[in-house]
Design brief:
InterPro entries: DUF6624. With 331 residues, the protein is mostly helical. Helices cover 64% and strands 2% of the residues. The chain folds into 3 domains: 114 residues, Alpha Horseshoe (Serine Threonine Protein Phosphatase 5, Tetratricopeptide repeat); 106 residues; 73 residues, no CATH class. It starts with 22 loop residues before the first helix and ends with a helix.
């Protein structure tokens, strides 16, 4: 079992939201049972998760379901899930064909499949997809975007280090924020020129990491630039040239800057006096994990814990929500 990377348009399809949303619960149970080597039980929970999402789940979960069923000895089910990936019947995420092929080739969980007559044909397809992907990447532009993206991330990693070391609202943080603002203004000029010249470049043209860099520079720009490129990014997602989760992040960032409640829970509020992070107010908080799953985001509790060390408690949030809404939202 591998944790395939998938870093972050609103997809509409039939789902009964009146029922308790159990997708993430099923995935968690499936992964726990896998680690206990209870493969058949694990696979059944992956099946339940798959049924809830009407096939539209991310590659990581499809792949892990295939590994589990391979270990359980059910090769038909394992190929069923792998074929969803190879035929691109999944929610678009971090679906790098090079990573996928390497995992197929090296993952011992799939050894049972390698004895099956279908395996060689499947691997040939995966290999051809990898080669086609590598061949189509626009290397000169990809390299240019890579350099811009590295500048964007390097300075923010320094900010993260300062906050972890010294806390929030320090003099070092304030000084670095000025440098970030200057770097962002340079980055957006370069990215706007690239988009004007080439349109929105998808992961199969410049690579997944560079596609993320393209989005991040827009995400870190001012509100006017963000609103300008929101319809561009929405169309790019519809054309499979950008990831649905990136659109979710941009929508939430714009909502926050406009003083409106967010949709997907990607944004936090930094209380500098208390030196704490809080979830920025969101609509319909009880159903937020459904919306996150629809765009390929992890459950809110995991996101807040991993990114901001916030222990998610919906009751605590609801207690604080009136004060936060009064402070942060427009009337």
């Amino acid at each position: 079992m591998k944790k395939l990377f998938f870093l972050l348009f609103f997809i509409l399809y039939t789902m009964n939201f009146s029922q308790k949303f159990e997708y993430f619960d099923y995935i968690e149970k499936a992964e726990n049972l896998y680690h206990q080597k209870k493969y058949e039980s694990s696979g059944k929970y992956f099946d339940k998760a798959y049924e809830i999402m009407n096939e539209k789940i991310i590659q990581k979960d499809l792949y892990n379901a295939a590994c589990t069923w391979s270990m359980a000895g059910n090769l038909n089910k394992s190929f069923f899930y792998l074929n969803h990936i190879i035929e691109n019947k999944m929610l678009q995420g971090w679906d790098d064909p090079v990573e996928f092929y390497k995992n197929l080739d090296n993952d011992s969980d799939l050894n049972n499949l390698k004895k099956d007559a279908r395996w060689n044909t499947f691997m040939d397809t995966a290999y051809n997809n990898q080669q086609s992907y590598l061949k189509n990447i626009n290397n000169p532009i990809a390299e240019k975007i890579k350099l811009i993206g590295e500048k964007d991330q390097e300075i923010r990693l320094r900010l993260d280090s300062i906050r972890k070391r010294d806390g929030l609202n320090t003099s070092d943080e304030k000084e670095l924020m000025k440098q970030i603002e200057k770097q962002d203004s340079i980055n957006i000029l370069e990215v706007e020129k690239i988009i004007n010249d080439y349109g929105w470049l998808g992961p199969h043209k410049i690579g997944y990491k560079n596609n993320q860099y393209l989005f991040l520079v827009i995400q870190h720009a001012d509100l006017g630039i963000q609103k300008k490129y929101l319809p561009v990014l929405r169309q790019a997602v519809e054309d499979k040239q950008a990831l649905p989760k990136d659109l979710a992040y941009l929508q939430d960032r714009i909502k926050r800057k406009e003083g409106l409640p967010q949709i997907y829970g990607t944004q936090v509020y930094i209380d500098k006096e208390a030196s704490k992070y809080f979830l920025y107010p969101a609509i319909d908080i009880a159903n937020i994990d459904q919306r996150r799953a629809l765009v390929g985001l992890e459950p809110l509790s995991g996101y807040l814990k991993n990114s901001f060390n916030i222990k998610w408690d919906i009751n605590e949030y609801l207690d604080k929500a009136p004060d936060l809404e009064k402070k942060l939202l427009k009337k």
